[in-house]
Amino acid sequence: MKSRPVDVVEDGKYYINLLTSIHGDKPFEIRFVPNSNHRGFGSTSILRYGDYIYRAKLIKGEGVDKKAQWCRFNAEEFGRAIIDEFMNVSDYGVGCNVLFTVNSPNFDIMNTCVTSDEHIKDGGSINAQFIDIDAPKQIRKDKESLRQFKKQVAQSIKSFSVQPSGVIETKNGYHVYWFVSDGKPELFRHVQMQLVQELGGDKNCINESRLLRLPYFMHVKDPKEPFPVTIKVWQPEVSYSQKYLKDNLSELTDETLEKLIKKSESSQQTNMSSTRKDAVLELVFERINPVGGNEDKIITQCCMPDHNDKKPSAWIDKNYMFYHCQGCGTHLPLEELARELNWHDVLDEINRYDIDLDQELNKVKSNARSVKELIKDVSEQEQQQIENIAESVIGDFKNAYNQNINDRHVQYIFDIVTLLVKASEQEKPTLIPLEMGGGKSTIIKVFLQQMLRDSNDYGAVVVVDRIEDAKKLAEEINDYFGSDQHALALYGFDEDDCLDNLYENAKNNSCPVFATNFKYKCNHIQRCRYFQQGEIQKQYPVLIVTKKRISLDFGKIGKYKFFGEHDEKQRKLLLFDEKPSIVSIRELNHKQFDRYNDLIQSKMEKSETPEALKEFNKAVEYVESHFYDAEKRELFEAIDKDFYFSDAFQTEFRKQFPDYTREIFEYPNTLQNIIRNGGHKDVTSKGVKLITNVYQDYADISGFKTFIFDGTADMDLEYNHDKYRLINFEPIRTYEGLEINICDTISASRTSLSDSDKVKAFCDDVITICEQHPTSKVYIPTFMSNEDEIADYLKDYIQRGQVLLAHYGATKGTNKFKECDIVAICGILHKNENHYIAKAKAIYEQCGELLDDIDCTKYDNVRRFNDNRIEAVKLLDMLAEYSQEIKRSNQRNNAENVAGKVYVFHNDKLLLEQIGLKFPNCTISEWYPQNMIETAIVTKGNNPKQMAFIDYINECEKHEIWFDEIREYLDMPTKGFSKLINNDTIQDFIKSKGYVEIKDGKRKKLVKS
């Protein structure tokens, strides 16, 4: 065949004839991939199904579009589609790589146009066996060596014992095809490996969805030397059975099998612990007929139902957990074998993740002590003081929340006040796990008011979350005394109270005095709160700061200790009203690195301290190399554990960049921590990212008696608990009235909720909940990105006050949801994998433990860390966040057992099994949100049989429906119907409609429960 000028219709006919000679009427994918050096758009795939072509684009960093019908499959429209897409993806006139699937995917289970191995193995079609023979990389640039290599390969193909159906020449070698009739997926890889063993070729090119080059397009991996891909042999009439190929090719050697399995297979089974492998193999032993083996293999008779094995001819690789039969050619990971043969116990064991959260929690709680154990002696005067303060707290609490208070809650208030009054006797910082709704704000406020009233020398530093909280507490303390001289809220620049803005009509969003190294002449410095507060704070016994400021000043907190005209008084108490920033995660990408460096260097070049610039440039040089030569996520070690930026540098830097609210303010600390602590790097579509951590151990602060109110401290691994005193506070009450309804088959990830159809389906399920509970109020916490869409869809329910909506991060410190008796959670509280790696690294290094494996593996469709210490950090972090969201509802009432419901969905069964951790005696129930389940089926792949099943059940109003009746309606064979009806998503749909499966003799039916 010869290449021809572009003619849309003729080219359309040509490629239809070529592709249908392989696929017949079955689907195929053509993928247009830009040159690897091109940094613009990603690839595009088109997919043939019946009379139509579907299309989906891959945008780098964003993912793949859903498949959408594009044009008809005829010569003119298909020809135009190929040329248009080639031009769209082509890189500056060089062209693009055009590839196609040799085997046919199952269109019905595809969400996009991108074919995977599963799309072919699960209902697709094996059309050919093939190999990709390429010259070794070391000779590709030598034209004569390459020519000789291709000549030898061509001769080998020509003289090969089994005549190929097609031979296509590529730039560095050949693609060789043997068309097959009635090909089976279970035999495909065995034959692929035999071909590789005999003729050589790419050892990775043995999977079902492998893409090969489409003839008569250019090979453009090297745009300087494009090469036309041409057909040398094409005889579709030459076709074989897979059995013929298997029997006429050399039997696979153990060496070949081991090399190819190791090269081509990577699954969670390879990453299993030896204990779990043994557990899986023990279950497999019960299913097979083992006859021998060694420490690496089990030899057995084949267990495939269609193979009457008498040799035996099968074996299981214990290291790679793989099954291979030399007789019938079945070649499958044990997980796929178990799925094929319905070995449910084996599947459950393979997908079981080794982690014991109870063990981790028990380690923490083993450090907990009761107040009676810690406080032995209380004087009469102290007891009277404790009673006065505690009674005032209880009175204020009842008035503020208009609710009673139970005996355990009363005792906890007395215990906390006792600890605070006896603070001078405490040697370690104290963790107080008082749950939300326990009245910590009231306790802190009343305690400070009373202590200030009783002593003119009393002082304390209070750390709160937000500036608003600091202002409020200062105002409440000062109002109590009718004076503004008792408490000061210390916070940074605020443009609303800048006197320069107020009186001179300036537009400052940061202090111009600091920003110009004191060159700006401000007329209001002497009265400026921000400028003078460093000295003013010494006039106040109670200083209230945000946890961000205390984190920035960590290591210099001692400057807040003294107050009075001559610093003669001490603030001895350091009181956190919530968990401080112990582990801070810092991320730095190459773009930020370059931008910050340019900005800082340009500023410091003009400064009067050249040593500061030299010091900064040294740090930049240390870090820069980490942005290169990274291929995957990996740990990196500290460069210089003794490195610190000098005080002189810090002073100069803060002159140039005084606003601590801006990201660049923390940049030197990020560089310093990368150099001192190391971290890990991740490779994304946008480049390399460095991630490091800062661990601030508040147990190391000297000169203060430190108390931390943290409702989840008893499940938080960030604290080095050996250095703290954890107070043993059980939940104030039990939760018999709380029902947590979980759906563990639908993802609640941020990515999945970018699908508007899914969000609308969630809203429809919320509407169902509202209609079922018309007198209830529903609180919905969600991602900020979904808030507006949900608000618009549920606007009628929001306007009448039945639904209250907020995004994560905007719900802290508010009581506005306390009347809600239902919580419907939309979105998983998962930060990101890099966050949990860095956090775990910080935590375990404090204990002298190092991380090694930071990769993840899928278990039951959920990514989990291979190192279960990181997974424990992740799960406990998420569970703590969930418990906080639930407690924002009417469950914050700790006085009595309050009825309430929670609805939560995510496909992480392990997480949802533990969601009641902070709610003893609550009820966990299954939830089947009908609208989300139906949407999941519709958007997952437009499977016509599944859709027909849904339509039939939705339209059927019968109390009971026989399986035979449904199967006949769907026109399905018994085996196919059995697979359909046992699909997990279909099972959820059935339950969402209120049906249960009943066996009546040998027949089955669905019956309304």
Automatic annotation (TrEMBL):
<protein>
    <submittedName>
        <fullName>Uncharacterized protein</fullName>
    </submittedName>
</protein>
<dbReference type="GO" id="GO:0003677">
    <property type="term" value="F:DNA binding"/>
</dbReference>
<dbReference type="GO" id="GO:0008270">
    <property type="term" value="F:zinc ion binding"/>
</dbReference>
<dbReference type="InterPro" id="IPR036977">
    <property type="entry name" value="DNA_primase_Znf_CHC2"/>
</dbReference>
<dbReference type="InterPro" id="IPR027417">
    <property type="entry name" value="P-loop_NTPase"/>
</dbReference>
<dbReference type="GO" id="GO:0006260">
    <property type="term" value="P:DNA replication"/>
</dbReference>
